Structures are given as structure tokens and as C-alpha cells.
Amino acid sequence: MEATEDVETSSTTTSSIVVKWSGKEYRIESVTSTTKVSDLKAQIFELTGVHPSRQKLLNLKYKGKTPNDDVLLSLLQLKAGTKIMMVGSLEQEIQTITEIKVDQTNIIDDFDISEEIAFENREEYLAKVAKRVANYEVKIMNPPREGKRCLVLDIDYTLFDHRSVAECANELMRPFLHEFLATAYEYYDIIIWSATSMKWIVEKMRLLGVLDNPAYKIMFFLDSGAMVSVHSEKYGVIDVKPLGVIWGKYPQYGPHNTVIIDDLRRNFLLNPKNGLKIKAFRKSHLNRDKDRELVHLASYLVKIATLNDFSVLEHSEWYEYIQSEKTKR
């Protein structure tokens, strides 16, 4: 068995591992040369409540594949403080998984924005955006291309279900992701913006095969540091994704040629006319065989790419738009 290989390190040597799950980090202490993967999962269970059978440690590898539970962690050559990404659901979520409808979860996570006109031009928020333009560092991976529109994409529940049960990252990837990005890339410079840290954005994109896909290129990533906080009378303080940060740094983009796609409408609260709310991709193990949201969305982006000014569009009616175009044929 894999776990019987000789280990020369002392069993008294201890270190720690950090597990990232559901937007939080959990530190696993006292990892020794005799600690097995099963022991690690047991400690994760104590901290998170996610049963070992539900845990998928996406970037934990041994000889190029996911290690068995009896493999010693010392054989994985992990450095102290190594961070591991975990996906998995709590037992109570599994028990109610067929009882909660997608529309209901959207209602829980989102809200009807009645204040959006007031938000757009408030001086205090414009000042915050200007500060991000001046101080936030963008690391360009691929330069902007002349004449292209700008497409800004969320990750969690838009491109990737980071909570459901799966054997590998590909099972959590929204169907047709690579085809969608390849189609969009013909007309748009693509930016990924997630409300998490840059480290985990890069890791998720690597696991999904987005970083080095030959069919398209990502212009750059934006993380939570580029977001700004606003105050809603109904919901208190929330963080949003202001497109003005992009427009301030790259003036070739603006309200006339930018679309931001997110499963939460509140994320584009400062730019409601440029926002397109996509149906959240949850419960991938139930929905990945029937979800075609990105196929339809690719058609829409291609259709509108020929327009000189996106401000004439109502993105909330995007699906009806492509259906009407089909009827005209």
C-alpha cells in the first residue's frame, strides 16, 4: 500500500496546514510524519463539520493523483503552512438538497435594488472608486486588444460551484465554461473579479484549466481589494464591484462597451445598467448535466458585440433577447 513507504523524518516533527473552505481558513495544527490523510480529514471534520466522506481536497496530490486516506502526509512533501482548498457540504445541506429550489436560494442571496439610482453618483462612493483607481495594483497577464469590448466575470456560483460534492474541480465547473470563454474572447477582453483573495482566484482558475487554455486569454484578475463598501438602508454595509475601477485605469472601456456578469445583482450596485445577473450554478452534482446557461449567454454576448453602445440594452432581458432573435430567423 502507498502508506507503507519508508519515511525518514521523525514522528515528533510537527507543522501546520491551512484549509480553505467556504470563504474561511482553518489551521490544522500538530501535523507529524505519522499523520495520515484520514487523520487530516478527521481534524477538518472537527473544525468545519464537513464529514470526511464529503471532503474533497482539490490541490492535495500524491504521484499526480488524489492520495488515498491511508497515505502519510509526510510523503506529500508539504511545507509548513501549506494551504489546501476543500470543497464539501455539511450533512444538513445534503439532507435538504432536494427541498430547496434554485429560485429560493437566489432570493436569499440577492435583493431587489430599489436604491441603485441614488447609489451611482454619490460623491462618497465616487471618492472610494477614485482611491481604488489610484492605489489598487492591477497585474496584467495579457494586454488589452484594440477594438474589443470588456467582459467582467464573477467566479463562485457563476463559473464554479465551490460548495457541492464532487470528486474533482471539473465536476464543480459550470458546463461549457471553456467554450463560453473561447467564444467571448473573440469579441471581449476578459477580466475575472471575485470577492476573495488573489491567491484563491489564481488557484481556482488553475484547477479549472483557465490559466493556460490555448483558446482564450484572461486580461487580469481583480480580488476583494478592488471592491468598495456601500451602505444600504435595508441591508447595511455591503461590498460591491465598481466598474469605475476598471474604467479609471483603462479608459478605452466604459459604460458603452462593458458587461459585468454575476449571480448576485448587488455586486454591480454602482453600475446597474452594465450588470447582467446570471442564474446561480449550485448543486453541481444535480445540475451539471442540464445547465446550459453559458451556452445561451455566449449567444447573447456575440449578438450585442456589434453594438456601439451597450447603454441601450436591458441586460435583465438578455434571455428574451436571444429568443426573439431566433424567432426572427
From TrEMBL:
- Extract the GO molecular function terms from the UniProt entry: metal ion binding; protein serine/threonine phosphatase activity
Q: Does the keyword Transmembrane helix apply?
A: no
Keyword line: Hydrolase, Magnesium, Metal-binding, Nucleus, Protein phosphatase
The protein's matches in InterPro entries, at most eight in alphabetical order, are given as:
FCP1_dom (IPR004274), HAD-like_sf (IPR036412), HAD-SF_hydro_IIID (IPR011943), HAD_sf (IPR023214), Ubiquitin-like_dom (IPR000626), Ubiquitin-like_domsf (IPR029071), UBLCP1 (IPR051658)
Question: Where does it localize?
Answer: Nucleus
Q: Does the keyword Magnesium apply?
A: yes
Show the GO cellular component annotation of the record.
nucleus
Q: What is its main location?
A: nucleus
Q: What is this protein called?
A: Ubiquitin-like domain-containing CTD phosphatase 1
